[in-house]
Amino acid sequence: MKSLFKVTLLAATTAVALNAPLAFAAEAAKPADAASVSKASFKNDDQKSAYALGASLGRYMENSLKEQEKLGIKLDKSQLIEGVQDAFANKSKLSAEDIEKTLQSFEARVKSAAQEKMEKDAKENADKGTQYRAAFAKEKDVKKTSTGLLYRVEKEGSGDAPKNSDTVVVNYKGTLIDNTEFDSSYNRGEPLSFRLDGVIPGWTEGLKHIKKGGKIKLVIPPELAYGKNGVPGIPANSTLVFDVELLDIKPAAKEDNKAGEKAADAKGATKGK
Questions:
Q1: Burial profile 123-134: b = 16 or more Cβ within 10 angstroms, e = fewer
Q2: 14 lies in which domain range?
Q3: 133 domain residue, yes or no
Q4: Average pLDDT in the 95-114 region?
Q5: What is its biological role (predicted)?
């Protein structure tokens, strides 16, 4: 993997301007107080483009400093700006070799601090999740399975419960235990359709407790969700809370069922050897 810092100023500037999402670019250009900004005047598009690149780079650098402060690393902004200016003026106070060594050392510090913070956050998430699940387990009508899944059936529904090979259609909202919403089909305006055995174990197990038209609240421990790794928007060791409405169940074709049965038989035979 390439070093995070082995880039030229031009490359970094261009990457920010061309590769960053439009929302980020808009944020980079947004002044702190729009009323205090006078009308910009540029002689041509080249001047305006140069200014835009500089503004994007400046915001990128500012955000980077803030992220590093979260890791306990506080860089001197004035020295950062001076370094940029000296580079343009071709009068760097450090040799190319010194810059390389310094940035390698800095990168190691950032990685170490990030790993330490990740481990600390993961432990805190695990502890808070344990407390949350213990409290939820005491609520009325909450049940706990042998795997640690907690659920409360809000509405049972009718018909048969879904099987692993079935495709289910659901509406749902997913939050962390602090009520931070990380996903919602309601917000997207359309339900989600998926094969029941193709999602996290907490869903595969949990949705079998309701039928078509049913509603359920699932509180899923990390080992039945995304575990120690987490995913974007869901930190490591997170306990997840889902409110799910089972809209429809579409049974798998007979061929799929037979294939699933054969696979299960083969797996059992292998375990028996």
A1: eebbebbeebbe
A2: 9-93
A3: no
A4: 94
A5: PPIases accelerate the folding of proteins. It catalyzes the cis-trans isomerization of proline imidic peptide bonds in oligopeptides.
